[in-house]
Amino acid sequence: MGETFVLSESMEDYLETILNLIKQNGSARVTDIARTMEVAASSVNESINRLSARGLVEQEKYGPIKLTAAGREWAERIDCTHQIIYLFLEKILGIDPETADRDACAIEHDLSQKSFKAMVDFLLANGHLTEQSCALAILAKKEEADGMAAKEVMLNDLAVGSTVEVVKLTSKGALKRKLMDMGLNRGAKIEVKGKAPMGDPIEVKVRGYSLSLRKKEAEEIMVREV
Amino acid sequence: MALNKTSRKETEVKIALAGNPNSGKTTLFNELTGSRQHVGNWPGVTVEKKTGHAFYKEYALEVIDLPGTYSLGAYSEDEVVARDFLTAGQYDLVLDIINSANLERNLYFTIQLLEMGVDLVAVLNMADEAEKKGIKINKHKLSQMLGAPVVETVASKGRGIENLLAETIKNRDLTEPALEINYGAEIEDLITEIAKLFMEYDFTNQVNHRWAAVKLIEHDPEAVKLLEREVGSSKAKKIKSLIAERELKAKDDFDNIIIDKKYELINKIITESVKAPAAGQEPENMSDKIDAVVTNKYLGIPIFLVVMWAIFKFTFTLGDPLIGYIETLFEVIGGWAGGLLTGLGASPLVASFITDGIIGGVGSVLVFIPNIFLLFLAIGILEDSGYMSRAAYIMDKVMSKLGLHGKSFIPMVIGFGCNVPGIMATRTLENKRDRIISILINPLMSCSARLPVYVVFAGALFPNHGSTVVFSLYLLGIIMAVVMSGVFNKLLFKGERSHFVMELPPYRFPTAKGVFIHMWEKTGAFLKKAGTIIFSVVVLIWVLANLPLGVEYASANSFIGHFGRFVAPIFKPLGFGSWQAASSLVFGILAKEVVVGTLGVVYAAGETGLRTVLATQFTPLAAYSFMAMVLLYTPCIASLGAIKSETQSWKWTLVTAGYLFVLAWVVAFIIYQGGMLLGLGA
Q: For labeling, which of A183, B33, B541, B677 is most exposed (least CB within 10 Å)?
């Protein structure tokens, strides 16, 4: 979902602030955000519009700002990364809380997945984290996503007999429409039934009937094994 | 539904058949209307329009067979025709023909109809096939969920037709509200806003407004056109940019969401109303077994070639003796009429006009009947049995390299027999682009009428290499077809991509009724549309060959002779600048084999002495150049008539006639001048 694009540091800070305000006060208003982050209300408005365009926050006119599901996920990930860095600096390295917090703020945006995992493992081994920590959920989710991404292939690469599910169509316009109209939309189960004697086109079974398509067209269909 | 239903006599009912291809729609249409059918065209397009009549008790039903489509989008002529008809609302009721053995995909079409607000009876056709697959449909539940009456039929066996007619009459005034699918907050809010803008902009078109809004959100080009027509382009632009703006914010493309929601609904309907064997528990599938042989890696191509050979043999070996009978019959009639006319004191010119011009003209149309009849019998069987799709599947790799579709192969093969049925066989191609290109290059397949020309010339000038020369000409035709197909793909249809996303329907036994109706239709269409053109040109050429009065038929002093003399210089660089050669090419437009007869007349040699004369008049190089010209130049009038009737367009007919003449000239020029340079002119 949200992971496909990047956000600037300040945008991430906004998301984090909104999340914390909602946690503390039950809602986040422009004025509260401006006060917490020590910026002008006008720049808050501008940033909120940008976040809203990306579907991360929602705001009724003059109402409080709400996080969308994607926005909340993003904010929680940043917030959790912050906590892990802070714990690592304070508990393991013995840095004073104020410096640890300030450094965590600076590092949280750029921390690699690898370092994050190493920190989490180290904290776990030394008893500073519980199994319920937000970090474990984030790591599990990331691994699942990586695992799935690895198994995603294009339909034309499959051997006869494979059974797969459509992930998405990469084509546009008339071909995409035709494929969807023939029942090859997301989630559709496909069985590769055969290849023509010269190797192209291929025959698949989808939604209870047989369909043929050229390899060039199958190339536009991303699938994963089921 | 808010559409203006047709208001006629109480006992007259107008119904339309809609549904997926391979749902038995045509079979049902034949079953309902029998021989009371009329085949025409939808205005402005090449899509066939079939209408017919059915009677039930005191009611007279007019039945319109809409083109079979999988969807009601805007990406093919067929879809647009069906959709325009449905939105115009000039009908009482739609019968939505559903293949019961494949509910999931068929219901996708049904819910599109319901979403448009079309009042329909859902016809669960092929109920026997569903039964065989172990599928049980709860009709009552299905009817409840669709909000439409449901009837079961087996059209191929005539089962359930009475009941269907009764239900049709009962529901002729059905008015149900349009189906509303919940597309989720993002899209629903947008639909509400668009509906408000419709009100504000005075969008008063009778189409269902919610449906129109959904279509706009899907970026449907026809819906955009409709909107622009109704509210003007500046207001339409506002709605379009509103949609674009929302889609940018959304996490997903709107058309994805809309289709997903449709299938969600279908799956819900199926879960609640259908019992099917679990995956892996299905009874054995006959089609899969046949496919394992027919599309087998090693057997597929040999089987395909045998089928092609069988069709070719069937069409021409069986047809040619029949053509002989027709020719003899017309000779007898001509002779008899000539005798009668002379006996009545008519002048020889009038007698000749009636016997050679009129009767000969009719004869030259009718000689095509046996081939067309037999070919479409064979094609009907291939299509209805399901093999046609497999043939396309097997050949597509080769054909797609030429920018063509797998189905273009059969018209090409038939073209070697005769281009007229070859051109007519392109009807099996659904995509307009594929169809037009296949038609344009079909005349390059060297038909059997060109063979006599090769035989005479090769016999006269290449006595020791006759078969090699003839073979090289066939090959030249094929090479030119490949080249021109590439050119047309680049030139005429730039950017349009053809696809091969095609259903492979289950194998079925063709019904005799279906195949024979198909055959009658094609033959009738040829007689009516191409026949008139062929007849008129035959008569015209007769007149030109006999004027001015008193001149000998086709002689140097006839109009044709003058014309031949006038155009002969054009052919001089090709090695045959004589008026005789030029006028034989003019007569060749009647039918390519006439070239030989004409040369016999103009050289006053008769067909037997012709070889000797030709050996003195042509060098071998000029003869080869002439044969290439005969192969490639403007096709015979019968082919042109078939092209006009298939494309519904004078433009494409003239394009074919023109490009082939230019191509022939250029190729003959290269052959002759190239040969001269290589010192082959002696």
A: B677
Kindly compute the dihedral angle of the four CA atoms of residues B327, B331, B333, B336, in this order, to the nearest 10 degrees. -170
Give DSSP secondary structure letters for A76-112: HHHHHHHHHHHHIIIIIT---HHHHHHHHHHHTTT--
Which pairing describes strands B59-65 and B12-19: parallel, antiparallel, or unpaired? parallel
Joined tokens for residue B366: 């009718």
The H-or-E segment that residue B563 falls in is: helix B559-571
Sole residue written with tokens 């006439």: B594
Q: How far is the alpha carbon of A47 from chain B, nearest alpha carbon, in Å?
A: 15
Interface of B with A in 630-659 (CB under 8 A): none
pLDDT score at B363: 79
Chain B environment of A177 (Cβ under 8 Å) = 71, 73, 75, 255
Is residue B171 marked as binding? no
DSSP, collapsed to helix, strand or coil, labels residue A159 as: coil
| Beta-carbon count within 10 A of A38 CB | 6
- In this prediction, the answer to ipTM > 0.85 reads no
pLDDT for the residue numbered B552: 75
Task: Assess whether pLDDT exceeds 90 at residue A9.
Answer: no
Do residues A217 and B500 make contact, with C-beta atoms less than 8 angstroms apart?
Answer: yes
> How many whole angstroms separate alpha carbon B7 and alpha carbon A221?
48
Q: List C-alpha distances in Å: B88 to B1, B66, B81, B213, B281.
A: 12, 13, 11, 17, 45
Domains and CATH numbers, chain B: 12-170 (3.40.50.300), 185-251 (1.10.287.1770)
Using CA atoms, how far apart are residues B628 and B632, in angstroms rounded to an integer?
6
Does the structure show a pLDDT above 70 at A5?
no
What domains can be seen in chain A, in order of their start residue? 1-129 (1.10.10.10), 152-225 (2.30.30.90)
Structure token pair of residue B63: 């039945």
Residues 506-525 of B with CB under 8 A from A: 506
Number of helical (H) and strand (E) elements in chain B, helices listed first: 32, 10
What's phi and psi for B19, nearest 5 deg? 160, 180
Is B280 annotated among the ligand-binding residues? no
- Reference B369, options B516, B515, B523, B521; nearest CA is B523
Residue B258 contacts residue B187 (beta carbons within 8 Å):
yes
- Which residue among A207, A208, A211 places its CB closest to the CB of B504? A211
- The H-assigned helical ranges of B442-509 are 451-461, 466-491
Write out chain A residues lying below 8 Å of B389, CB-based.
Answer: 212
